[in-house]
Amino acid sequence: MARRISGRSHGDPRSADTRAKVKDDYRPSRDEILRYIAENPDRSGKREIAKAFALRGEDRIWLKDLLRDLQDEGLLTKERKRLTRAGALPHVAVLDIVGRDADGVLLANPSEYTGAGSPPVIAIRMSRGASGPVPGIGDRVLAKTFPTDDPSGPAYTGRVMKIFEKRSEAVLGVFRVLKDGSFRIEPVERRQPELIVDKEFQNGAKNGDLVEVEPARASRYGLPRAKVLAVLGSLTSEKAVSMIAIHAHDIPHIFPADVIAEAEAAKPAALAGREDWRDLPLVTIDPADAKDHDDAVFSTPDTDEKNPGGIIATVAIADVAAYIRYGTPLDREALKRGNSVYFPDRVVPMLPERISNDLCSLREGEDRPAIAVRMTFSAEGRKLRHSFHRVMMKSAAKLAYPQAQAAIDGVPDDKTGPILDSVLKPLWDAYAVLKRGRNARQPLELDLPERKILLKPDGTVDRVVVPERLDAHKLIEEFMIQANVAAAETLEGKKEPLVFRIHDAPSLAKQESLREFLQTLGLSLARGAQMRPGQFNGILERVRGADNEALVNEVVLRSQSQAEYSPKNIGHFGLNLRRYAHFTSPIRRYADLIVHRGLIAALGLGPGGLTQQEADRLEEVAALISATERRAMAAERDTVDRLIAAYLAERINDTFDARISGVTKAGLFVQLPQYGADGFIPVSSLNGDYYIYDETARSLFGERTGKGYQLADRVEVRLLEVAPMAGAMRFEMLSDPKPLPGSRRSFHKAKGRARASQSRFGPRGRRR
User: Fold this and answer.
1) I want to staple 602 with a disulfide (CB 3.0 to 4.6 A). Which of 489, 494, 610, 752 is the partner?
2) How far apart are CA 37 and CA 18, in angstroms?
3) How confident is the model at residue 399 (pLDDT cuts 50, 70, 90)?
4) pTM
């Protein structure tokens, strides 16, 4: 008979007496396994579960089948190689403290929660032996979470690892001058009240300016007052729009005085202790408008007779660790930012300009410290060996992608002409070799063009373009991937702690959802837990050039997991690599700086290596920089949405070609391919039929006709309403519904599901 688990965090979950009496054919119950996984989130891999319950031989096969059944039933989900209870919080999470219970214990909710129902409640406690500030209501903290057994109390306890800096009380708003000459602040966020500004606190603001204000205490009567702290620019300028995103997402954008002082006091690194590579003609190839250059490349054929057709590829990366030492003001600020954030006309950098654009930028013709990797590949693109070096280099040329590509295509200029045969052609020869290796590896190959917003001098949108994807881009990308792989392999081989860049395979639930969708198109996806990118590539190849190519690419993309940072390696599914770490951009990513420090320590390359104190914090650091990366992506996306919405605000009632980018019960999201902007069409505005949502087919179809609209359909729409500050647009559908692929089968299945739902719920959504 199965027994309950003791609740300890490690080792065999049974007591010593129980283990002494247990029979050889002991098998734990489903509840015991679920409880063990909930209580041991760090030790919930299949092997660890088997070890905890002393399962061997055929019992391990039984366990594998049981775990798969629990996943199919939705009771477990697989994240990396570990199993978690469905809807469970991650073991390390960012929490917002929202109140106290009757005993005064702090209570928190996860700051990001995408699960069903209300977010779980976490009872907060401090780490053992912690000193310094104590968290309070309103604070945001990083904490380890542990599930509890008390059904009447909080679902989790949280042990605080870090308290984030409190947000400033300043708010954003639009400065308005009323007809009577008085001043008001129109809030950017709806939850903020309108504010009055007295003339002595105007601080130079003019009508229509975006301003940062400090609210005063609200009086008993009338609107609260405020004073203008800073004028951020005109509401119509991009600077103001990006500042809204910076403020809304709590992105640090002003360097503290001690950080600037440390950066300005930094001296150029010396040659002593480094290899002198200044005669090697390394070149940088970047976007034409790049201000910092953190990678340079060079290649030659391998002269070893044992490696015919092989090449030696060299990648040199700015030695940021030479200037940013662990625990200094520069380091603390870099970790807080996590990464640089890129907007259409500004960059919020991770490091001050003195470091990022000067001392660490691999400028043409100037001595710069670097950490370089020299990699030897066979003619088939298989890496044979590599070595890391701490060097002093001097870039032979600063090139832009189109400039380098033009030289290879037969149109060299004054800069590329002299190095065409000696530098550029060997680089392209090396790329041909690396491409063979990439083709053999078969990473995920999604065809999703990226758009770039070009601005006018006044900061407003000029046009949106899709930059051409050149071989020059692919060359640098492949060189960087191989350098990242070499860094991960070296550190793992030396057993040096590091932060991996990991990307999990799609969950079983997402695989099944994708499989059901593909069946509606007459396509099949093999079953099995061990998915490979090549299986997705086969699907994408079958629809290449077909009408549903964009649709399938979009759905395959949405089935993928999100890449993140972790000190525990599970490999990178999308790139189809066992070991991968970010090494090539330490100017703009803190993860790369950690890897640099690890290489310095592991290989004995001098000062600035990873310290034990830093190594002990890698789990916390990985969670932080994964969060700052998501924050940056959201801020960049919000800014683009607001810019495009403002740009189209003058085109109300115009018609546009669009593509359906999302389907929900509430309606259709449509994207304007020309601009990359999204808007919404409410289902209530779709005329001529009653529309039913089919989740499997990603479609809305008419109950009477069976015709409808599906994800990725090309349609014509009319713009009805724009809210520029929200980045929101509402459209009207002009295109008629069409017969859907597999519409008869999909129609009857979805209609049956809709009727089943209506039988459980009343006409207003109330459960019967």
Assistant:
1) 494
2) 20
3) very high
4) 0.75
